[in-house]
Amino acid sequence: MATFELYRRSTIGMCLTETLDEMVSNGTLSPEIAIQVLVQFDKSMTEALENQVKSKVSVKGHLHTYRFCDNVWTFILQDAVFKNEECQETVGRVKIVACDSKLLTQ
Amino acid sequence: MAATTTTSAVYINVIEDVINKVREEFLQSGVDEGVLSQLQALWEHKMMECGAICGPIERSSLPKQPGPGGSAITPVHDLNVPYEGPEEYETPTADMLFPPTPLQTPIQTPLPGTSEHSMYHLPTPSDYPTPQDSGGVPEVKPGRPSPYMDFFVVPSGKRKREDFPPQVPGSGYIPQQDGAGDATYDVFQSELAHKEIIGPLPHLYIWLYPYQGVASEDYNTVNTPAGHELHAGTPAVVAPIEAGDDDDDEPPLNENDDDDLDDVEGEEPNTQHLVLAQFDKVTRTKSRWKCTLKDGIMHINSKDILFTKQNFLGHRRSPERTHSILPTDEAEAREVNALWFMFLIAGLGIRGWMVVHTRRAFLGHT
Question: Transcription initiation factor IIA gamma subunit N-terminal domain: which residues (chain A) (predicted)?
């Protein structure tokens, strides 16, 4: 199964990476197994987002930067307004990184 | 609360899923299962610290719960019984660090000297970074009795490494901190660093879709090196792009295209607000961008929000309409300046007209 390493940059992914880093430097874990854990995280996170999340969000903003490189879109929006069922958030500047969803289904 | 309850629940599920699914690999590689629970505990602890999950964590299957009844760890031990302490050497899980049950009924501060928790007392009692600043760990109340806190909050952020003694399995293996161990660590580090570097490539603007001036563009042609597994963070080598074959009207990118904003903030402005997702569709109609994203994690205003679908509309400001991005007062100032300039021209014109006419009148008289 193809996976994205994209979600490792999220809070949960960063916490896992830090944890593994500490445990590898402790000598508690081998680097190989730490990488296996990260790969499993990629899979589990993707599955969880597919199956357990139902909420929808819409965003409007001024597009400051757009870039499409190696099948990854990067956008930087300014004065973006995020709306979902529960709340509305406004941010001055947000970065959106998106991988091609078709790569997972191939 | 920094995380919504649903986000927190999904995060907890993900942690559990990962731990369960790597268990076999751990056992196959001969790693003690205690290491796995240590990993889980550390991970959950970090998540709580940054407020991404809100404890207490309720699990369907608690890994190892001491004591009968399945209740959380009881802080009071009968000191008359000879202590056979597996708990002391047991890897602390986040449940042990932040026990769910006694929170509603905080135990009374014991009298000094008779404290039953003295055996757990640590030499550095008040060395605890208060996580309630982030608002994410609701169960750590400021008014809690201090011995209680000292007991449970052993591995705080400041001394996490020392607080988790390396797991010593029955074979007596003690991990070596120097020598051969460093080599493997270096490999891991460089692996991580490598990923960091080849992840985002800030300056690599590739115009796969040259501007044609048409009304609408669809960016959804699959342009993938298909066949093998693809990882987003480790992109394949970009195929050489036929730059220059196209007779584009647009001049090639040069330094004039740089945004002054970019110059100020380095190669890419560092944004704490981040959305990580997959895209289904990206289209552009003139300066109007429309994107459909799915399965994403947002970190917005220090909140983590997960979504299954996201539509986003972006308006690209065209450089011709720069006046529109001026702050209002500056734009007004320009207008006022323009007005003065018109008056000036008008004034000169009237004067010129007057000069001409007076001369004419003068000449006419003579």
Answer: 4-49
Pairing of strands B274-285, A88-100: parallel
DSSP label at residue B138: T
Q: Between chains, do B314 and A84 touch, taking CB under 8 Å as contact? A: no
Number of domains making up chain A: 2
> Mean pLDDT of residues grouped by 10 in chain A (106 residues)?
87 94 92 94 94 90 93 93 87 93 84
In this structure, the answer to whether residues A99 and A62 fall within a common structural domain is yes
B31 in contact with chain A, both atoms CB, cutoff 8 A: yes
* B contact test, residue of A20, A35, A94 with most B CBs within 10 A: A94
Q: Is B127 helix (H, G, I), strand (E, B) or coil?
A: coil
ipTM, interface predicted TM-score of the complex: 0.94
Which domain, by its residues, includes A66? 58-105
Q: Report the CATH number that the domain containing residue A72 is assigned in CATH.
A: 2.30.18.10
Alpha carbons B46 and B160: distance in angstroms, whole number: 10
Residue A1 falls within a domain, yes or no? no
Best mutation target among B295, B301, B311, B315 (most A Cβ atoms within 10 Å) is B295
What is the rounded distance in angstroms from the CA atom of residue B162 to the CA atom of residue B358?
Answer: 97
Residue B244: band (very low, low, confident or very high) from pLDDT cuts 50, 70, 90:
very low
Q: What CA–CA distance (Å, rounded) separates A66 from B314?
A: 10
Judge whether A101 lies within some domain: yes
